[in-house]
Structures are given as C-alpha cells and as structure tokens.
Amino acid sequence: MAPARSIRSPEELYAHAIAIEREAAERYSEFAERMSGLGNDAAARVFSTLAGFEAEHLETLKRRTDGIAVPELWPAEYKWLDTGAPETAAHDLVFRLITPYQALAIALDAEKRAQQFFEYVFRTSCDPALHALAQEMAAEESEHIAIVSEELARTPDPTVNWNSPYGEEATVAG
To answer: With bands split at pLDDT 50, 70 and 90, how would you rate the model's confidence at 81?
Structure first.
C-alpha cells in the first residue's frame, strides 16, 4: 500500500498511524463482539486481544504526538468495510453475515496493508527519525499478522465447493 503522496515527516507518519490504529481498534472490537455472538470464543478472544493491542498503540501514538501538529486525514481513507457511517445498512449487513474465517481474512488483509504502508515509508525515507519510526511500526504490524495468520489457519473456511461436495473433485463421465 503506497500512499498517494510520499510521507515526508514523522508528523505525517503519525497521522497515518493514528488513523490505521483507530480503525483497527474499532473493527477488532466489533469483530470480537460478533464472534462472541456466534459462539466462537477462540476468534472472539483473538479479536479482543488485537483490539487491546491496537487501542494501546493508539494511546501510545497520542501520547507521543501530544503538543505536536499532526495533519488531519480524511477518515474514509482507512475504512476496512465501507466508507459510510457505521450506522449504514451495508456495514450492518456485513456484520450480520460475516463468518469467523471471513473476519480473520479481512483482518489479515488490513494488517498486511498497514505493514506494506510502513515498509514503503521505511524504504523511501531519507529522514533518519522517519526511517526509524516506520521500521518500528512495520515490526508491530508483523506481530499482528502472525497472530491473525495463526488463528486463520485454525479456522475452517465455510466456502462450499459445489464441484466437490464429498471432498473429491467431481469428474465428468465421458
């Protein structure tokens, strides 16, 4: 995920990181609640843990930027599911239909995009402070990717293979 324009300062990177962490904390909290409602305690625990990590990261970023002029970003730029308000019908529909596997897949994709973003900033930065900050943030995302990947590997994929209802590829008699 490369930004539309290059990140030139730690303040700009902090603005993006705050937006990324805020969205992740909100979505993981929602996913935890939904997984709990589905009776999937393992997935609910993973999402609750991730929500806690993201909320802690968000608070750390806010403390680090206290008194610093951090640019404002368009909030929709970091939405995972839709660009409307959380009360929209599309958002509600996704949460009514989402399976644990799908929620984990969405989370994994979001974590990978965040890591790619921070790695891009790391690779393209000439500012030593920005370089170090981007490297730190990419490493945090790597930890989250590992957590989500492990849980995704343990979670059954509910997709039905209609060509193979008995677990074998269907063959055509000829």
So the answer is: low
pTM listed for this prediction: 0.78
Residue 171: DSSP 8-state: -
Mean pLDDT of 54-71: 91
Task: Choose the weakest-confidence range: 7-16, 65-74, 136-145.
Answer: 65-74
166 in any annotated domain: no
C-alpha distances in Å from residue 37, one per residue of 45, 55, 94? 12, 22, 14
What number of other Cβ atoms are within 10 A of residue 20's Cβ?
A: 26
Domain that holds residue 50: 10-69+80-154
| Three-state secondary structure readout of 96-137 | HHCCHHHHHHHHHHHHHHHHHHHHHHHHHCCCHHHHHHHHHH
CB 144 within 8 A of CB 50: yes
**Residues in contact with 3: Cβ distance below 8 Å, sequence separation at least 6, in sequence order:** 16, 117, 120, 121
Domain assignment present for residue 61? The answer is yes
Q: CB count, 10 Å around CB of 8?
A: 14
Cβ proximity of 71 and 11 under 8 Å: yes
